[in-house]
# Entry
Amino acid sequence: MTPHIVQLAIGPMQNFAYLLADLQHHVAAVIDPGWEAEQLHRAATGIACTVTQILLTHTHFDHMDAVTALQELTHAPVFVHETERFRVNTAGPCHALHDGQQFQIGTLSVEVLHTPGHSPGGVSFLTANTCFTGDTLFVDGCGRVDLPGSDPHAMFRSLRRLAALPAGTIIYPGHDYGPTPTSTIGAQKERNPYLRAETEAEFFHNRVE
Ligand SMILES: [Zn+2]
# Structure
């Protein structure tokens, strides 16, 4: 089953939210509803899908502030890494995720990769040849590691893990900070200095430049 992906630029901070849909079974997950709950809900109904899950790559406000409003519209449960579960106030059920966990959106299989560094409970969602990388990996960049809860050493390890995905894996980042809205792991390993860095020394050298 090929995932159907809708990338939505929302809010004033260049955020991307996503629909990850199984069109055949008319179900979709919303990833990172930071803003514009009604717009996200309309986008799902526009492709004839019911929102069955709300997935958070992490719990910074620009990725989750529309959770309550979206939950009121959809009654879908929220899923977030166990480390950041306590940061989420929802109008309905909220479930904790852990590394390696697998779940279904219709017939789509999704795997949770714990990719901390930008925040302690950062995750990436992997399905087929597609990876939603949140604020861990951007096109030509990576997330900030100078925030409360950030850990630059963990970020380096998380990026090495993403770098090990197949080169053709398409990445969908949490912000529109790059020259293109998406890229591939292969292309990023060539031109993203943070993903190219194979040692912590290289990684930290890049970060201070
Ligand atoms: Zn963030």
The pocket of zinc ion is lined by residues 58, 60, 118, 135 (CB under 6 Å). Residues 4-208 form a domain with the Metallo-beta-lactamase; Chain A fold (CATH 3.60.15.10). The first strand starts at residue 4 and ends at 10.
